[in-house]
Design a protein that fits this description.
By secondary structure, this protein is mostly helical. The chain has a single domain, classed as Globin-like. Helix content is about 80%, strand content about 0%. It contains 8 helices and no strands. It has helices at about 5-20, 20-35, 40-50, 50-55, 65-80, 85-100, 105-125, 135-160. Helix 3 (about 40-50) packs across helix 7 (about 105-125), helix 6 (about 85-100) packs across helix 8 and helix 7 packs antiparallel against helix 8. The radius of gyration is 16 Å and the shape is globular.
Length: about 160
C-alpha cells in the first residue's frame, strides 16, 4: 500500500469511527447556512489574529484574500457534501502542504480553535434566537472535531512513516 492509499484509508477509517449522525450533519449544515454570509469577514478576522499571522508569515506569496477563499471553499464543501472522497483528497493535499511549510500539529489545532471561535461567534451573536441554536452549535463543533481528528491521524501517520 503506498502512502497516499494509507492516508486515504486512515481518513476513511476515522470518518467511520466518529459516527457523525445524519442529524448532527443537518444541524451543522444549518449552522453553516447562518455562517456562510459572514464567513469572509470571520475568516479575514481569523487571518488577522496574531497567532495566525505568525503562521502565515512563513508562507511564500501569502495572500489573505486567496486563503480566505480557499477556507470558504473547504468548509462549504464539507457542509455541502460531507466527508466524501473529495474531502479526503483535499485534506491530504492541505496537510501535505502545511507540513512542507513547517506548520506543527499543535499550531494547526490552535488555529482550528481560533477559527471555530470565529464561526461560533456568528451563531451566538446573530442566531441565538433560533430554536435549534444549541443543536446547530453542537453540529458545527462535531464537524470541526471530526475534521481535526482526521488531520491528527494523518499527521501521526506521516510522522510514523518518516520515522
Amino acid at each position: 500500500m503506498d502512502f497516499s492509499q494509507l492516508e486515504s484509508s486512515t481518513a476513511a477509517q476515522k470518518i467511520g469511527q466518529y459516527k457523525l449522525s445524519t442529524e448532527d450533519m443537518l444541524f451543522a449544515k444549518n449552522a453553516w447556512r447562518y455562517i456562510y454570509p459572514y464567513a469572509e469577514v470571520a475568516l479575514t478576522d481569523f487571518y488577522e489574529n496574531d497567532f495566525v499571522q505568525n503562521l502565515t508569515g512563513r508562507l511564500p506569496n501569502y495572500s489573505k484574500l486567496i486563503l480566505v477563499g480557499k477556507q470558504i471553499k473547504y468548509w462549504n464543501n464539507i457542509f455541502s457534501y460531507g466527508f466524501n472522497e473529495i474531502y479526503i483528497d483535499d485534506v491530504i493535499r492541505i496537510i501535505n502542504s502545511h507540513r512542507r511549510l513547517g506548520i506543527s500539529l499543535p499550531d494547526y489545532i490552535t488555529s482550528y480553535g481560533i477559527m471555530l471561535q470565529k464561526f461560533e461567534d456568528i451563531l451566538i451573536k446573530d442566531r441565538s434566537d433560533d430554536l435549534c441554536h444549541c443543536e446547530n452549535l453542537s453540529g458545527l463543533r462535531k464537524v470541526f472535531f471530526l475534521d481535526i481528528c482526521i488531520v491528527c491521524s494523518l499527521y501521526s501517520d506521516q510522522h510514523n512513516q518518516a520515522a
